[in-house]
């Protein structure tokens, strides 16, 4: 399984499972790592190996790319967001079925929340680490200084769930 400190790669388009995977990884004390689906298989593989990823969750439309990137990576847990898993991939719904939710893992502000990699336009992708405390401070800054949101305000965001937006949107009250 996946536990505290494990890296969970996510190769997916914007969809509910994208958010589910990020929040589930953080719930377990693991580190979420979205991967740019525009990268080529060798770049995806480099990111998975460089990060020491324990698991990869993949959109069914990207299974061929992910499969090419993960060939020979036997220890990597591979899950597809498809209702039925492709060959070598566990279907995400089957992981949900009948599973008892584990206890939420407490994290410190300096624990890693998310790994992100640059696109590598001038070479290999570069790692960027975001800690839980830094994300919290960034969200507070964005909500109060940039978005000027206060109690009772509502925000409708029609765009990507990438980067920090999914956590920013989920961090407020509805």
Q: What's the short story on this structure?
A:
With 174 residues, the protein is of the alpha/beta class. The protein has helices at 16-27, 41-51, 63-70, 92-96, 132-146, 165-170; strands at 7-11, 31-34, 55-58, 77-80, 90-91, 112-117, 127-131. The strands form two sheets. It has a five-stranded parallel sheet with strand order 2-1-3-4-5. A two-stranded antiparallel ribbon has the order 6-7.
Low-pLDDT runs: none
> Globular, elongated, flat, extended or rod-shaped: what is the shape?
globular
| Helix-and-strand structural type | alpha/beta
Order of helices and strands: EHEHEHEEHEEHH
How much helicity do the residues have? 25-40%
Q: Sheet with the most strands?
A: 5 strands, parallel
Rg over CA atoms: 16 Å
Task: Give an overview in words.
With 174 residues, the protein is α/β, with parallel strands linked by helices. The protein is built from six helices and seven strands; from the N terminus they run βαβαβαββαββαα. A five-stranded parallel sheet has the order 2-1-3-4-5. It has a two-stranded antiparallel ribbon with strand order 6-7. α3 links the parallel β3 (55-58) and β4. α2 (41-51) crosses α3 (63-70). The chain is globular and about 50 Å long. The model has no long low-confidence stretch (mean pLDDT 84).
